Amino acid sequence: MRKIIIDTDPGQDDALALLLALASPDELDILGIVAVAGNVPLHHTLNNARKIVELSGRTDIKIYAGSDRPLRQTLVTAEHVHGATGLDGPDLPEPTHPVETQHGVDFIIDTLRNVTDVTLVTLGPLTDIAKAFQQAPDIISKIREMVMMLGAWRELGNVTPTAEFNAYVDPEAVDIVLNSGANLTLLPLDATHKVQSTQDRLQVLRDMANRTGPQAAIMLKASEAFDIKKFGWDGAPLHDPCTIAYLLKPELFTGRAVNVSVETQSQLTLGMTVVDWYRATDRWPNANFIHDAEAVGFYDLLFERLRRLP
Ligand code: RIB
Ligand code: CA
After folding, report:
1. Residues spanned by the domain of 45
2. CA of 123 to the centre of ligand 1 (A)
């Protein structure tokens, strides 16, 4: 059983990650979900997190509001991928699930100070985590593992020629986390580009006998156009669920301990994650960089779990 906190900027792929986690209560004890600004502004990511929890039927889950902007950069959003609401596609009712009054950063700090063996899962910019580390550095050593959808090496960038979106939105936050000494596992584009939601896979979701499957298909159909146009694939990569799948079945993924650093100064390469794959420097290997993912096993797991939901 992993005790986890999920920090997320839903986003359709975030939504699938949340559903995968919410469908796995025997392996994942979700201590809370924190919405952060990223794909769309905070009011939308928060609303979307509430909608997804309600769709899953897991109304036992607590939801918190996190940061509404990066540490220093002006917020860059991705409505061109996810739509104006960040969850375009499904027609989900306006949520009634409550938002906790405690700020998400304070929730992260308090939980790590009082609960042992917690894993932090990040699906968006790292603003909340960086703030928690700045305000309470004592929590860093208490974290079992940070599992982050973040960065890229051979896959270069998706929001600029050199930067992956989560790293690009708040590179200063990434720099704080990469230099924190925490136990880090990255699920970068090098892994997520290997698990594409092809049209056949979307049909499996559509054919599910429950409500969640068809809704998930509508979500992914609504957000696939950007990647299909850019890469010419038969489907969009399913980024964020790789973090949850890694926790559930790590054998589906292959990683390597390397140094990962991030560009925070250059406007040309801002947010670029620089991976010292061949140990060309003496920079210490600070992360388990997942560079490969087994797509058939990943989707078998995703489908099997989503079928458990209402
Ligand atoms: O680069 C992909 C990441 O950026 C995913 O987390 C997606 O949801 C967006 O946040
Ligand atoms: Ca995300």
Report:
1. 2-306
2. 7
Residues contacting ligand 1 via CB (< 6 Å) = 9, 11, 13-14, 38-39, 123-124, 149, 158, 164-166, 239-240
CA 79/CA 82 separation, integer angstroms? 5
pTM over 0.85: yes
Domains in the chain, number: 1
Structure tokens, 297:
């096993």
CATH of the domain at 236: 3.90.245.10
Q: Which of 19, 39, 192 to mutate to test the pocket of ligand 1 (most atoms within 8 A of CB)?
A: 39
Amino acid at 3: K
Q: Quick check: is 103 catalytic? A: no
- How far CA 142 is from CA of 100, 137, 138, 149, 153, in Å, comes to 24, 10, 8, 21, 29
Mean pLDDT of 189-197: 98
What's the pLDDT tens digit per position in 86-115? 999 999 999 999 999 999 999 999 999 999
Q: Tell me the β-bridge partners of 153.
A: none
Please, what sign has the CA dihedral across residues 77, 4, 141, 254? negative
d(CA 20, CA 24): 7
Q: How confident is the model at residue 192 (pLDDT cuts 50, 70, 90)?
A: very high
Distance from the CA of 124 to the center of ligand 1, in angstroms? 6
